[in-house]
Structure to design on (397 residues):
């Protein structure tokens, strides 16, 4: 028997519709994941183009070249007129903007050309920020004739520069590149100027598009998928996934839960840094979960009385890099695997509750509580405890 023969639930970013991510096994629709997100969102499609997806439609994203199910937290773009640099929301000095000059990352001719006509050329948008708060500013850039471009984030209320002013020219090329800066405001906050062009010392052209400024509620500290704006800020609500009523594919006394995932980076010190997914029951008692705990990865199972069976930290995994994680549960034979290596075992003989009936992307099945945010290539459920050679094959990158 192969792993494909043994697996009872297999979900990958293959086929979908609004509200549903179809599972490969079983193929009768009984285990398709239910997807909720109450706003539209964007993704990078297989052609490399940014496009809008409907409410509740999974974001099957190809930013890395390989399709994955993108699961994101709530985020708001505070940067107005994100695609219209000729708008008066941008203050310009010695910068001429030609609107809709070339094809943008969304495949339409709506990206602007910015031409500097002096060594002291500047362009900025001023936005009010909260004090002592972390933000991420991002935009898409493409080389024109300029040989250098400077940027700056400057607070007008006395905090001075946020982050390190500098140049992003070396990051970009003849293709569109997303440039990103994460920074923390000072004690004053308030009016802050965002300069994508700031006295570079040279003249010429550059193409810019898709400006985004995000304050996250989950300590994410990185840019999320593009959120277009016009005259007001725009919020993209979080994605959540769950499938209930699947006890027939979950082992009542033993099994394996597996996921190939990449976590978003999200800080180290507060509860919102936890990011968990797994299987459990309708009472949220029986837990077989894998996830991120602060800066480490873990796998654990817990019986209905709350007694822990495994709680183990994996080796460090680079944020944004995919990992293959699995937890094997069986009375007297528990194990946590990460990237082809058995990390921790337990011979705890506590009986496994036979009531697991759901796959979910949050801790204990609670909405927005330690929800998983990141990228998913595969979720798999086995109703038997796999052998060590099988687990090696399953989790090896």
């Amino acid at each position: 028997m192969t792993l494909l023969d043994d697996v009872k639930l297999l979900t990958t970013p293959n086929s979908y519709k609004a509200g549903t991510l179809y599972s490969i096994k079983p193929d009768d629709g009984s285990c398709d994941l239910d997807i909720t997100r109450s706003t539209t969102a964007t993704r990078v499609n297989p052609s490399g183009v940014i496009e809008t997806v409907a409410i509740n439609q999974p974001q099957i994203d190809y930013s890395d070249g390989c399709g994955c199910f993108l699961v994101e937290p709530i985020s708001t773009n505070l940067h107005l007129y994100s695609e219209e640099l000729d708008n008066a929301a941008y203050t310009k000095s010695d910068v001429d903007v030609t609107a809709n000059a070339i094809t943008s990352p969304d495949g339409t001719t709506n990206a602007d050309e910015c031409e500097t006509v002096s060594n002291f050329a500047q362009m900025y948008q001023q936005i009010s920020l909260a004090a002592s708060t972390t933000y991420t500013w991002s935009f898409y850039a493409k080389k024109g004739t300029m040989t250098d471009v400077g940027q700056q984030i400057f607070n007008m209320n006395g905090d001075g520069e946020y982050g390190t002013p500098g140049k992003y020219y070396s990051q970009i090329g003849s293709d569109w590149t997303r440039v990103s800066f994460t920074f923390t405001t000072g004690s004053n906050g308030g009016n802050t100027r965002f300069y994508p062009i700031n006295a570079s010392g040279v003249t010429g052209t550059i193409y810019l598009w898709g400006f985004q400024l995000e304050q996250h509620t989950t300590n994410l500290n990185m840019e999320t998928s593009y959120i277009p704006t016009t005259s007001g800020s725009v919020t993209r609500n979080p994605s959540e996934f769950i499938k209930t009523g699947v006890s027939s594919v979950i082992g009542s006394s033993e099994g394996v839960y597996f996921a190939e995932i990449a976590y978003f980076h999200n800080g180290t010190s507060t509860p919102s840094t936890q990011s968990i997914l797994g299987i459990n029951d309708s009472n949220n008692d029986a837990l077989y979960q894998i996830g991120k705990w602060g800066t480490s990865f873990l796998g654990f199972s817990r019986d209905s009385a709350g007694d822990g069976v495994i709680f183990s930290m994996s080796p460090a995994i680079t944020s944004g890099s995919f990992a293959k994680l699995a937890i094997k549960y069986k009375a007297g034979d528990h194990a946590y695997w990460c990237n082809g290596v058995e990390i921790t075992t337990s011979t705890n003989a506590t009986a496994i509750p036979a009531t697991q009936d759901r796959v979910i992307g949050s801790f204990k099945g609670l909405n927005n509580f330690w929800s998983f945010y990141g990228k998913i290539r595969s979720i798999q459920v086995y109703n038997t405890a796999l052998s060590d050679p099988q687990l090696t094959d399953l989790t090896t990158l």
